[in-house]
Design a protein that fits this description.
Helix content is about 20%, strand content about 45%. It has about 90 residues and is of the alpha+beta class. β4 and β5 form a beta hairpin. The longest helix has 11 residues.
Length: about 90
Amino acid sequence: MIKIIENDIIQNGTKIGYIKGDDIYNTNGDKIGSYLGNDIFDYNRNKIGYIQGNYIKYDNGNKSISLQKTKLHISGETVPDICRAAIRLLFGN
């Protein structure tokens, strides 16, 4: 379970990263990815996934994850779905 508290990304009580604007960073301060519109990018701005309907799709479109399950796995009241999806893909949870 991941919780987003303000801008911090917390897993099992430990901070694993943070959100700054549309960018996602690890705890070392390294940018690991970002999101824009319905698209998710890695740190090199390569598109790695996107939201389509009720699913998060990997960029090749061959694998998808339920957005509803992601909402249960990543909590945070004011976090947009695309941010949750990016966290799920970038942290591999």
